[in-house]
Amino acid sequence: MTKNNWQAVTIATQNEAVESVADILRTVGADGVQIVDDQVPVKVIAYFENNEQLSATVTNIQSQLNELQRYGIDATPGSVTVAGVAQSEWENEWKNYYHATRITRHLTVVPSWEAYLPNQRDEYPIIMDPQLAFGPGTHETTRLMLQALETVIRSGESMIDVGTGSGVLAVAAKQLGVDTVLATDIDESAVAVAQANLTLNPVAKDVTVVVSDLLESVDSNLKVNLVVANILADVIERLIPQVTKHLKKDGYFLVSGIYDDIAPQIIDQLGRSHFVISEHMIMGKWHAFIAKSQLE
Q1: Same domain as 117, residue 229
Q2: In terms of domains, do 183 and 234 share one?
Q3: Alpha-carbon torsion (117, 161, 44, 3), positive or negative
Q4: Are 192 and 266 found together in one domain?
Q5: Can you say whether the dihedral through the CA atoms of 41, 42, 43, 46 is positive or negative?
Q6: Looking at residue 180, which CATH number applies to its domain?
Q7: Domain CATH for 26
Q8: How far is CA 35 from the centre of its chain?
Q9: Is 142 annotated among the ligand-binding residues?
């Protein structure tokens, strides 16, 4: 396509709002989302075909950015700029910002295009090609989840990864010794990306990925040791009642994607759903919980 056929919509925001801003852009139909976080404010760039709907789309984006403030998410300055761009300029440009990143004692997220050798015997690389529409697996919410997984996983256990996205948590679980993993996502494109990433990690070749709205398409008789979810807080509230039906006795629910202001109500709902929070993890303004089921 020529330069006039694509438009880059750039939003300047705070690091803590990046995930929410990126979700807004994906929801309104961006063909790709790029995050440039080596400066302040952070830039989140989305690419759209230049058509008659673009003006309305930009107005919708600005409206949703304003809504983030109501949830206590600081998305300032929240400026939105639009500029023409050639497709060839953005198809691979985003890869320049992603490099191998050590996340926990044992886990390192490695882009598929980068050669990497582990520095120690018990370091496990997670090879990711997140594609333009998904993050590289290094956002604070993902870091929290990887730390939580490393804390509770025991070899031979079973797990469901809800809202798998790029599949990073499913791969990490297999690297840490989980026996069986079922991954779900409501987005068919996410399922395709996750399946592609599983093929990059031979340890995860037996992970099953399915299209499902949370756990609605999962066999009602399936019981696992762990359910993990790195998703938006309002979706977590809908997920919690479903999780209790799929956890074995003393099973764990690991959950992230929770912003400061929402954390108290998630804590309350977990308690009312017979979970005890064994660890409350915080990174920046993001929260994650390791919650143990008390149901018999």
Answers
A1: yes
A2: yes
A3: positive
A4: yes
A5: negative
A6: 3.40.50.150
A7: 3.30.70.980
A8: 14
A9: yes
Least confident range of 22-26, 92-96, 162-166? 92-96
| Domain span including residue 80 | 3-95
User: What's the pLDDT tens digit per position in 243-272?
Assistant: 999 999 999 999 999 988 899 999 999 999
**Residue 59 annotated as binding?**
no
- Do 156 and 74 lie in one domain? The reply is no
Q: What is the count of structural domains for the chain?
A: 2
**C-alpha to C-alpha distance for 222 and 248, rounded to whole angstroms:** 9
230 marked among binding-site residues: yes
pLDDT digits (tens, 9 = 90+) for 13-53: 998 888 889 888 888 888 778 888 777 899 999 888 888 89
Place of tokens 């998904």: 134
